[in-house]
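Example 3.2
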Amino acid sequence: QVQLVESGGGLVQAGGSLRLSCAASGGTFSGYTMGWFRQAPGKEREFVANIRRSGGSSYADSVKGRFTISRDNAKNTVDLQMNSLKPEDTAVYFCAARIVGKLNYDYWGQGTQVTVSS
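Structure, written as tokens:
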């Protein structure tokens, strides 16, 4: 059973930056695709970014060029560097892990709140 714990959320002004971190335990971290998702009030959870075992990454169009996902397989962590934040980035951000070859993310963290003020 993989356990994921996010940290680094908070309140920031528009244009500012935050770095989220997710620590994984209980599984073979290097074998997972790791992802970040977010859910704003009244909206469905949406994909933000993911990073594969190879280090290749994908981003939602809404964050491309502003957010960067990275992973450290030695430390079992995945980070999300968020720059040029906008009020519409306000959401609870979730870290997730997907076993290679599967379509769905199997493991989720509890989420961390990011609030961007205008």
